[in-house]
Design goal:
This protein has about 260 residues and is an all-alpha fold. Helix content is about 80%, strand content about 0%. It has 16 helices and no strands. The longest helix is centred in the N-terminal third of the chain and has 16 residues, at about 1-15.
Length: about 260
C-alpha cells in the first residue's frame, strides 16, 4: 500500500508539471486512470466535458479508458453529448469503435455520418468493419475527396488481392492528386515496381534521392536492380544504403542477395 501511495504521489507531481494538462480535472482524471480508479477517472472526465474549453486531453483519456473498460454507462454518456461540445466528431469516432461489438449497427450509422463529413478515420474504420466491402468503401471515399491515408490503405488492398489494373489506376490517381513529398515518391516507386514498370520506379526513386533521402532511394534502386535480375548492382546499392543508414532489415536483404 505504501508503495502504491509513493507511486501515486510521484505521478501526481509529474502531472502537476505537465503543461498539456492545464485543468485540475484533466490532471485528476489522468491520476485516477493511472491508478486504475476507473469510476473516479470517468467522473473527472465528465466534469471536464461539462466546462467550456479544449476537450482534447479528455478525449485521449477516454480512448485509454475505453480500451480498458467496456461499460454501457460510459457509452451512454458519450452518446448523450450534444453536437456543440468541443471534439464532438472525435467523440463519435471513439464511440463507434466502442460500439462495434455491443451495437455494430449503431456504430456503422455513426461512421456513416462522419464519412459524409469526409472524415478519413471513419472511412478506414468502416473498411475494417466491413472487409468484404472495403475496396468499394475506400474507392467511393477517394472519389468524394482525396486523402493520402485512404489511398495508402487502398494500395495495400490492391497489393493483397493482386489486382494490377486497379493498382495502376490508383497509382495514376496518387500521381495527380497527392501533394509532392517523399512518402508519395516511395509509394509510387514501389507500386510501379510491383507492376513491372522499372523505368517509372527508377524515376520516383531518383526524386526521393533529390529530396535528401539517399539511403531509402538506394534501397529502392537495389530492389529495382534485383527485379531486373542484376544481383551485383543490387548488392552495391544495398551496401551503399546500409553504410548511410544501418538497419537490420536492410542487412538481411543484402545477405540474402549475396547468397
Amino acid at each position: 500500500q505504501k508503495k502504491d501511495q509513493k507511486t501515486a504521489l510521484k505521478l501526481q507531481q509529474k502531472l502537476a508539471r505537465d503543461r498539456q494538462l492545464k485543468s485540475d480535472d484533466a490532471k485528476l482524471a489522468a491520476l485516477y486512470l493511472a491508478n486504475r480508479q476507473i469510476d473516479e477517472g470517468f467522473a473527472s472526465i465528465q466534469r471536464g466535458f461539462a466546462k467550456p474549453g479544449d476537450n482534447a486531453p479528455f478525449l485521449k483519456m477516454l480512448r485509454v479508458l475505453l480500451q480498458k473498460e467496456d461499460r454501457p454507462e460510459i457509452r451512454e454518456w458519450m452518446a448523450a453529448q450534444p453536437p456543440t461540445v468541443d471534439g464532438y466528431d472525435e467523440l463519435q469516432l471513439l464511440l463507434a469503435q466502442a460500439e462495434m461489438k455491443a451495437d455494430p449497427q449503431q456504430a456503422r450509422q455513426r461512421l456513416q455520418a462522419l464519412m459524409e463529413k469526409n472524415d478519413p478515420r471513419a472511412v478506414i474504420l468502416m473498411a475494417q468493419a466491413e472487409p468484404d466491402q472495403a475496396v468499394s468503401t475506400l474507392q467511393q471515399a477517394l472519389e468524394r475527396k482525396y486523402h493520402p491515408l485512404i489511398a495508402q490503405l487502398l494500395y495495400q488492398y490492391h497489393l493483397k488481392k493482386g489486382d494490377r489494373d486497379a493498382l495502376k489506376l490508383l497509382l495514376e490517381q496518387i500521381e495527380q492528386k497527392q501533394q509532392e513529398g517523399p512518402q508519395k515518391d516511395a509509394l509510387l516507386a514501389r507500386g510501379y515496381l510491383r507492376l513491372g514498370d522499372r523505368v517509372k520506379a527508377s524515376a520516383f526513386a531518383d526524386q526521393l534521392e533529390k529530396k535528401g533521402l539517399k539511403a531509402q532511394a538506394l534501397e529502392l534502386k537495389g530492389d529495382i536492380e534485383l527485379a531486373a535480375r542484376q544481383p551485383k548492382q543490387a548488392i552495391r546499392a544495398y551496401a551503399a544504403a546500409l553504410r548511410l543508414q544501418p538497419a537490420d532489415a536492410l542487412a538481411t536483404k543484402l545477405f540474402q542477395t549475396r547468397i
